[in-house]
Write a structure and sequence with these properties.
The chain has helices at residues 2-24, 45-51, 65-73, 87-99, 108-115, 130-135, 141-144, 155-158. The protein has 176 residues and is mainly α. Helix 3 (65-73) runs antiparallel to helix 4. The radius of gyration is 21 Å and the shape is globular. This is Diheme cytochrome c. It comes from Thiobacillus sedimenti.
């Protein structure tokens, strides 16, 4: 009888310890799909400085290499603006974007984005990816056009930590 009692206590203790560990260890998945930190651990200073001077420096994992090549190859017509850079800076930023792109195989976010694209898709806008559309399908078009937001490309309007690469759904605050 004592052996069964002691085994029972051992089993309950083991299950309790396993549960405690499972819920206390850090996990990116616990941050949710699209959440968590999407920036690589090492970022390009040129990318931060040049891209963030006009908008959020979008995480490289949001688009595949082919998209970044197209985008960086057309900086003189960058969504209606001339965002030309000197060749060395442009090459440095492109290298960073390609190294950390959705199809570089280094991030879970990139894997999610790539699963939503066709093999030859190379969208110029993150908002054109099926991943983005699916993640934001509950947001009415009227919300995007609010003066406080402007467009779906203004990540920082609702994702207050977008500049740090944090897109946790629980932290979304849609401005009025």
């Amino acid at each position: 009888m004592n052996n069964y009692f002691l085994r029972g206590i051992g089993v309950v203790g083991a299950v309790g310890l396993a549960s405690l560990l499972a819920f206390s260890l850090p996990s990116n998945e616990a941050r949710g799909d699209g959440g968590g930190r999407v920036l690589p651990q090492t970022v390009s200073k040129a990318w931060q400085q040049e891209c963030a001077s006009c908008h959020v420096a979008y995480a490289p994992a949001f688009l595949p290499k082919a998209s970044w090549r197209r985008l960086m190859g057309g900086l003189d017509h960058h969504f209606g603006e001339n965002a030309s850079l000197d060749p060395a800076t442009q090459a440095d930023i492109l290298r960073f974007l390609e190294t950390n792109a959705a199809d570089s195989g280094t991030s879970r976010m990139g894997s999610r984005v790539m699963r939503s694209l066709g093999a030859n898709d190379a969208p110029l806008r993150i908002t054109e990816t099926r991943w983005f559309v699916r993640k934001h399908d509950e947001v009415p078009h009227a919300v995007w056009s609010r003066k406080s937001i402007g467009s779906a490309a203004n990540c920082a309007a609702c994702h207050r930590q977008a500049e740090q690469g944090l897109f946790d759904e629980d932290a979304v605050r849609i401005p009025k």
